[in-house]
């Protein structure tokens, strides 16, 4: 059997993965007022990592991204629950949120909301769950 | 005028998707079905683009990008499976 030659997919994936990561972060950031959010941002992020898994092999990607994805999912759920519990400290109902307008050096007047912290937890949970499923069922042993 | 043209092209895209569905169900080999799936993704992207021109909205651009990315990754995964029999390799043979 002759040696497999996949130079084209490797060259394309090195560019496309950067674009998909950027798009995932854009989806995540725009989630408060426009279509997007933690769930779909996490799924786009996971699809970029799946493209890495397809192009290179599992061993190489695991060596370069040394994260236990089950741990990532657990940390995400923990962050989401803790931001929900944090609202109890201010004597308001569970999962309440607040936002304010701040003046940042580069961005100017920016709206910062505490819902972003909850969204980070959701995104981490989605990334961890999706990649754990893919790595479990994609194993050919 | 423009609206009629857009609706007409949507109708033609629907006919094209029906023809692709025939190939997807009937297709003699697996390669035909994979190619039909790729063409189906491109037709759906065109339909969403024409629809967003029709209702003059920019809210569907993320949908177009996302369908493009998922169709690309799905086609690569199916091609890898057809060629090597395994989707995700454990260790690349050097």
UniProtKB/TrEMBL annotation, chain A:
Keyword hit for Cell membrane: yes
Domain (Na+/H+ antiporter MnhB subunit-related protein) ranges: 8-131
Lineage: Bacteria, Bacillati, Bacillota, Bacilli, Bacillales
PANTHER family, A to Z: NA(+)/H(+) ANTIPORTER SUBUNIT B, NA(+)_H(+) ANTIPORTER SUBUNIT B
One GO location term (cellular component): plasma membrane
Subcellular location per the Swiss-Prot or TrEMBL entry: Cell membrane
Domain of life: Bacteria
Topology within the bilayer: Multi-pass membrane protein
Membrane-spanning intervals of the chain: 12-31, 37-59, 71-92, 112-137
Keyword Transport (UniProt): no
InterPro entries to which the protein is assigned, alphabetical: CPA3_antiporter_subunitB, MnhB
Record's protein name: Na(+)/H(+) antiporter subunit B
Family to which this protein belongs: Belongs to the CPA3 antiporters (TC 2.A.63) subunit B family.
Organism: Robertmurraya kyonggiensis
Swiss-Prot/TrEMBL keywords: Cell membrane, Membrane, Transmembrane, Transmembrane helix
UniProtKB/TrEMBL annotation, chain B:
Statement: the UniProt record of this protein carries the keyword Transmembrane: yes
Residues spanning the membrane: 6-25, 37-55, 61-82
Cellular component, GO annotation: plasma membrane
This protein's UniProt keywords: Antiport, Cell membrane, Ion transport, Membrane, Transmembrane, Transmembrane helix, Transport
Coiled-coil residues: none
Source organism superkingdom: Bacteria
Keyword Lipid metabolism: no
Major location (coarse): membrane
Family membership noted in the UniProt record: Belongs to the CPA3 antiporters (TC 2.A.63) subunit F family.
Record's protein name: Na(+)/H(+) antiporter subunit F1
Organism: Bacillus yapensis
Taxonomic lineage from the root: Bacteria, Bacillati, Bacillota, Bacilli, Bacillales
């Amino acid at each position: 059997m002759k040696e497999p030659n996949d130079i084209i997919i490797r060259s394309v994936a090195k560019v496309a993965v950067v674009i998909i990561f950027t798009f995932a972060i854009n989806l995540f950031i725009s989630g408060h007022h426009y279509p997007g959010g933690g769930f779909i941002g996490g799924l786009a992020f996971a699809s970029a990592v799946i493209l890495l898994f397809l192009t290179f092999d599992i061993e190489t990607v695991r060596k370069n991204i040394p994260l236990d994805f089950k741990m990532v999912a657990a940390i995400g759920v923990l962050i989401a629950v803790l931001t929900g519990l944090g609202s109890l400290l201010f004597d308001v109902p569970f999962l309440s949120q607040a936002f304010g307008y701040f003046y940042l050096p580069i961005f100017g007047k920016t709206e910062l909301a505490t819902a972003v912290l909850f969204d980070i937890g959701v995104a981490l949970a989605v990334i961890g769950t999706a990649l754990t499923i893919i790595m479990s069922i994609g194993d050919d042993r | 005028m423009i609206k009629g043209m857009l609706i007409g092209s949507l109708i033609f895209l629907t006919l094209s998707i029906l023809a692709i569905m025939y190939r997807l169900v009937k297709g003699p080999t697996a390669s035909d079905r994979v190619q039909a799936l790729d063409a189906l993704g491109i037709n759906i992207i065109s339909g969403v683009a024409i629809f967003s021109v029709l209702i003059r909205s920019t809210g569907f651009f993320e949908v177009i990008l996302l369908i493009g990315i998922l169709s690309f990754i799905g086609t690569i995964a199916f091609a890898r499976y057809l060629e090597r029999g395994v989707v995700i390799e454990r260790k690349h043979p050097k």
